[in-house]
Amino acid sequence: MTPNSLPISRLWRLAAEHPDALTAALCGILVILGSLALQFGWLGLAVLILPAAYVIGGYSSTREGLTTLFQERELDVDLLMIVAALGAAGLGLWRQEYHLIVDGAVLILIFAISGALEGYAMQRTERSIRSLMSLTADTARVVMYGGEREVAIDKLEIGDCILVKPGEIIPTDAIIIEGYSAIDQASITGESMPVEKTSGDEVYAGTINGVGALKLEVHKTPESSLIQRVIRLVQEAQTAAPPSQMFVEKFERGYAKLIVGLGLLLATLPPFVLGWNWEETIYRALIFLVVASPCALMASIMPALLSGIANGARQGILFKSGAQLEMIGKVRAIAFDKTGTLTTGKPEVIQIVPAAGYTETEVLQLAAALEAHSEHAIASSIVSAAQQQQLQLSTATDVQAKIGQGIIGKVNNQTIAIGKAEFVEATSELSQISQQLQAEGKTVVWVAKGDRLLGIIAVADTIRPEAAATVKRLQKLGVEHIIMLTGDNEQTAQHIARQLGINEVYAELLPEDKVQAIKQLQTQYQTVAMVGDGINDAPALAQASVGIAMGISGSDVALETADIVLMADKLEQLAKAISLGRRAQNVVKQNIVFALSCIVLLLAANFFGNITMPLGVVGHEGSTLIVTLSGLRLLRN
User: Fold this and answer.
1) Region of residue 354 (left: phi > 0; alpha: psi -120 to 50; beta: else)
2) What's the pTM value of the predicted model, to 2 decimals?
């Protein structure tokens, strides 16, 4: 390998990954070189360079414009821009005012840059689906009379018996016919704790089996599984064009038709109606095409939105498209996922209640010594709590896990049992406190030494410190409705919601239920944001007007599906994102009014003021520059 081969291969890869950006960059370089050639009087060189800029920068817009014209019988701004640019170039050659060729090239360059920016927003759906597909297993272990056989997922049939070993991904939706285990369903339902399941219970594809081997019976075809439905929901929601996009496309085509129609009238009627000569008529018609081209109108939007995106990035808010920066400023209702979004998504020890004669430290120290031999999420939280207090843990022996009940073993030659009340044969000494803790949505673990109760440990998913303040801030910003969506149980969800000041809660939801909740909100509030972090949130994130994902705790699918990512998992950035979106809306509206006013004034001057082409171009380019600089105001915090 030569020293230069690596940089060259990297350049080729970048060119292949970003063709639109490369096209815009080449067009810009050629425009600069052509302009310099004219300034130095090298006319022949300029005439060679500038047409190349037209071809390279305008090829994509010309193709799209002609495709729309011939296949859909519609005119759009792409074709209008090319006609205006070619008109300016033709006029420059005709009148030997060669700087007009540069003006036409600049018009094409602006559109080439816009095309490059749009290209980056076109790849989300494919990446999202690939990420979702990575969650599903390729094969399943089918139990047959002669033993076990690996079978491709799409070859499974209803009634097949499959074996899933501890720690494996469940390959398809099925019913447990033998075995007992704790299933990590966070990827599907968002539940923060593993769910214990046994014979007769349904399990979902993409979830993770715990410590017990399971025999499952396939009761539906693999393509009907919950994870496959999640994939289809993401596809449907992301491919549906939002009303705002349809309105912009319709406006562009209507505007193009109007300008082309008026341009044709201006090129033919004045000699008969106003007594102009044909040279003057064509000259005025070409000026009309230049000054009426919507460059300033288009520049009213993208520079402002790009500046807002850059501002958001500095504050840890990643906007995946300018449209979503503008959209979030219109949000009237917000739906929050609970686990991992309003909460940390990790169970923690919340409270230790010792029985009479014991201390919190003794209870935690003995419990952690035994739980250090378990891989259960609750066990990990107990061990983590002991480590934070820097407690010295004794070595446990003869440790045995009783699936669905608890764990038992010996610490310092004394039998320690941890788990449910009936498992440790606990007395009713702390039953009332236990019931109160459970009513608050906490999981209670009983700890006993021999036949004596040591105490209870309450474990729960903890609320993010900034969550309550964020909810209040959103309400002050005028967000009309805030709800919480979760796969967790009703009791836990209501307790969390009360602490956060959220009045409406939907609990025990599957991914498709969350989508229906978002659709219902959209019928009432139109522009709805969804904030989530899990795979189970992906369909709702895609359905929402604005999908917002947590950057650190968020799954790959949620990050790919969402329109906005809070990179540092700071919920308070959500209020900043909405404020930034509203600022962007205001700046864009101001720019549009200014751009349209300039177009109207230039058109009036062309008809009644007898302006020259250079003045028309100056007015056109000047208004474009002004709205571009206006958009840069959003770079300021």
Assistant:
1) beta
2) 0.63
- Of 466, 507, 463, 501, the closest CA to residue 481 belongs to 501
What is the chain's mean pLDDT, rounded? 80
pLDDT tens track for 351-384: 999 988 889 999 999 999 998 888 777 888 899 9
Q: Which one of 20, 76, 337, 461 is the catalytic residue?
A: 337
Distance of alpha carbon 94 from the chain centroid = 51
Q: Which residues of 496-514 are buried (b: 16+ CB within 10 A; e: fewer)?
A: bbeebebeebbbebbbbbb
Enumerate residues 6+ apart whose C-beta is below 8 A from 551. 316, 318, 559, 565, 566, 567, 568, 569
Could you identify the residue written with the tokens 């606990």? Answer: 426
Within 13 Å and on the Cβ side, how many CA atoms surround 408?
A: 14
Tally: H helices and E strands in the chain: 24, 21
What pLDDT is recorded for position 7? 60
CA atoms within a 13 Å half-sphere pointing along the CA-CB vector of 120:
14
Residue 351: beta bridge partners? Answer: 458
CA distance 603 to 399: 87
User: Do 603 and 292 touch, CB atoms closer than 8 A?
Assistant: yes
Predicted confidence at residue 360, as pLDDT, reads 92
Is 160 noted as a catalytic residue in this protein?
Answer: no
Classify residue 422 as exposed, middle or buried by CB count within 10 Å of its CB (0-12, 13-18, 19+): exposed
